[in-house]
Amino acid sequence: MQRMLTRALVATGLAVGLLLSTSNSVVQGGVNDGELRDAISAALAQLMVDPRFKDFLLNDFGIPAAKISDPALCAEYPSVTQGSLLDRILEKRVIRVGFSADPIPFSFIRAGDRLPDGIAIRMWPLIVEKLSRHYGRKIDFRLVQSHIPLNEMFTRLATADDPNCEARDREAGKESRSDSCWDINGGGFAIDATRLTQNDFTCSYVPAILTAVRTPRDFTGSSNPLKTARQVFEAICDPALHPVIAAIPGSLESRFLETARRDGRFCFDRTGVNNSPTFSQIDRDGTLNVLEFAETTQAHLVLGTDARLLFTFRSSPDACKTCQIIEGVLSQLGGFAFGVHKTKSD
What we know:
CATH class of the largest domain: Alpha Beta
Shape: elongated
CATH superfamily of the largest domain: Periplasmic binding protein-like II
CATH architecture of the largest domain: 3-Layer(aba) Sandwich
Radius of gyration: 21 Å
Low-confidence stretches: 1-30
Largest sheet: 6 strands, mixed
Distance between the termini: 53 Å
Oligomer: single chain
Order of helices and strands: EEHHEHEEEHEHEHEEHEHHEHEHEE
Strand content: 15-25%
Number of helices: 11
Structural class: alpha/beta
Mean pLDDT: 84
Strand order of the largest sheet: 1-14-10-13-11-12
């Protein structure tokens, strides 16, 4: 049976960023770590209309240009405050990019040569090219692999006052780990409410749209075929059906399920029925191929983001041929972006 692809409710993600005036001058005054966020956002705006970005996104990852976020929502290049993190990066002419090997296809380690790869990894040569052109000096990047959970990477973000994370290590009574300190979380980060409290995010470069895989598991006794986003919500909100849903713990899709359980209007807003969501959740390993997982899981639905599933669909054409991909279950805030240290003054 051929794999069926359903497209529904496709929406672009919202972007995060402040619009500032373009200037190359150095401003004397208070330190503003948010300048780095805005400088990277401005470079992303240029990147998103760069044919090289569109080409590798489609040809190597199966993601069409229509999936790219709106560059008009990105910041403009900021002025540079003396002593700011951006100022330090420009002086050293290198930006340290922290990444995790887990969020395929945005950042991962290739199986063959064990080198970093992914959408976000391939973006950085183009990002520093645009930063270099704007600020009039050659800037390079250095990848730093994180070995802590993705949602804890914000704890190793550099600041203008603590550029090598040494002060926080001393405060915690730990041996300094300056080699595991970076200027920006530059791998695959989907913006959600929790991460917004931990990072200042650039504008998004690819929207994060919740997508479901309908597995071969029989939905016994149900007339709901689970073929559309609407039918997914109807199944979640029908106490007689009680679908089993798989999601990566701590992920955007897992937090969506947590929100569904707490939101008293979840079912009414989506189906017009005043029921509470009824479903069981099982965990899946984010490092495993989602379609291979779908072939053997006991879940009826496996949740993920469309960018990740489009890549898996392209790279694993023979996996789970009886699975149905249901795109556009829910648009999420912000999409995929890069995170810098969250300053209290911003």
